[in-house]
Amino acid sequence: MNKIQRLRLISAIIVLNFIVTVPVLHAQLFKVQVDAGAFDRKNTVVDFRLPTPIEPGNYSLVSQGGDILPLQVDQDNTGWFILPSLDAQHTAEFEIHKESHSQQQQDSAPHLSIGENAVSIKKDKTTIEFVTFTGSVLRYFYGENSPPEELDERYKRGGYIHPIFSPAGHELTNHLNAQQHPHHAGIWSAWTNTLFDGSNPDFWNLHRNSGRVDIDTLLHFWEGPVTGGFFSRHSYFDLTGDEPKIALNELWEVRVYASPLDAAQPYHIFDIIVTQTTNTDRPLLLPEYRYGGIGFRGNKEWDDPLKSDFLTSEGLGRDGNAQRARWVHMGGYIGDNLAGFAIMGHPINYRFPQPARIHPSEPFFNFAPTQMGDMSIQPGIPYVTKFRIVTSDGEPDADLIDNLWNDYAYPPGVSIIVK
After folding, report:
1. CA distance 178 to 376
2. pTM of the model
3. Domain 27-116 belongs in CATH node 2.60.40
4. How confident is the model over 70-103, as pLDDT tens digits?
5. Are 120 and 223 in contact (CB under 8 A)?
6. Going edge to edge, which strands form the sheet with 68-73?
7. What are the beta bridge partners of residue 49?
8. How far apart are the first and last CA of the chain?
């Protein structure tokens, strides 16, 4: 057992599941009223907290007109469903039924065609993959990868997403590219320019041997009729001293949603929430720098700048570098086919809308709040970042991305009525 493994063992969190006796109400005692607000809604992800506990599991939402939608209730007593459509300034009302969507379906009744385990899992010894009816969405390395012979042991790691897929099955990310930035790993998280406990660990550039980020534990994963996903824990190791020290603990929540089957342009959609906390009573200081945080590396074919491009919410391309944006799309040709993905920032993110780091010639993107000045992650104050990712084929559709961003940033209102 090496030093890092010993430190992982010493610092590991034991997750205890407590069973609390609480009254569990029958699901049909609730009505769910959804208010579209200022935007037209189409295939919109909706979540809400129930006011009193019901059993986790799969339910149905039944509208006054007889439409039936799958509802998934998680361990946190949060319900998740996908709203097919609702005009701006209108409301819709549903009853919660205990029967699952597949039990409730009737061929004669209109309904959204999403059934049991619309998001399913494939798991092997190193990765967990999430699949919808329209194909694979993403793969996460919860175990160590297998670097090519050109790369040494420093690049053997886990704790990142690769690949993400377009609905047509094209891989949109890259990792372990021995010819160009091998430390770029699909979708990953790391800070570059830091100050910690009198040292300057660089958690981004593995070849500098001063810091690294590794998987600690895959804590939990699930699949279901509306959403599948996982929670995992990562550790930021400061390697500048005689012994490795953990500077940050990091929690990833990744949530994949059922892909809409009636969209004019098919797409996959998933969320990433990253929560970072200091491991000691000392802060991690983040001086002003042009990149750092959550990085995105595009398909290897996009290493040729003539085969790839960017589009920001402000209508800019690569000239959107260092400009603030609500979302950024990266895409290009894979063979003869166009595909890409949009990265949407959430309004809760620090310094939103955050500045973009768009590489002048390579397929690399990063929302970089440190471009706007010094930052810090302080003890006792979690640093939370939220992104929604949408993958698609063909040219980027700015109107669709804007609509999906509005759903993300300003979701429909939900009221729970106890009957």
Report:
1. 32
2. 0.91
3. yes
4. 999 999 999 999 999 999 999 999 999 987 655 5
5. yes
6. 41-49, 78-86, 68-73, 57-63, 91-97, 30-35, 413-418
7. 78
8. 58
pLDDT tier for residue 375 given thresholds of 50, 70 and 90 = very high
DSSP β-bridge partners for residue 230 = 221, 254
**Residues 139/126, Cβ–Cβ less than 8 Å:** no
Residues 6+ positions from 410 with CB-CB distance below 8 Å: 37, 38, 39
Measured CA to CA in angstroms, residue 129 lies from 45, 123, 171, 176, 379 at distances of 21, 6, 13, 19, 34
Q: Which two three-digit tokens encode residue 318?
A: 């690569």
From the centroid of its chain, how far is CA 350? 17
In whole angstroms, what is the distance from residue 393 CA to residue 97 CA?
36
- Using a pLDDT cut of 90, give the percent of the chain over it: 85
Nearest residue to 199 (alpha-carbon basis) of 243, 238, 235, 236? 238
Strands (E), 239-382: 245-257, 267-278, 284-286, 293-297, 308-312, 327-334, 337-345, 356-358, 364-367, 375-377
Distance CA 292, CA 357 (A): 9
Give the model confidence (pLDDT) of 96-155 as tens digits.
998 765 555 443 333 334 446 799 999 999 999 999 999 999 999 999 999 999 999 999
Centroid of chain to Cα 167: 17
Decide if 78 contacts 121 (C-beta within 8 A).
no
Reading the block at residue 28, the tokens are 């049909």
* Helical H segments across 181-294, by residue range: none
Model confidence at 254: pLDDT above 70: yes
Who's near 85: CB < 8 A, 6+ residues apart?
Answer: 40, 41, 42, 43
Strand partners, 257: 227
What is the CATH topology of the domain spanning 3-14+117-412?
Beta-galactosidase; Chain A, domain 5 (2.70.98)
What residue segments make up the domains of the chain, in order of their start?
Answer: 3-14+117-412, 27-116
Backbone angles phi, psi at 376, to 5 degrees: -155, 155
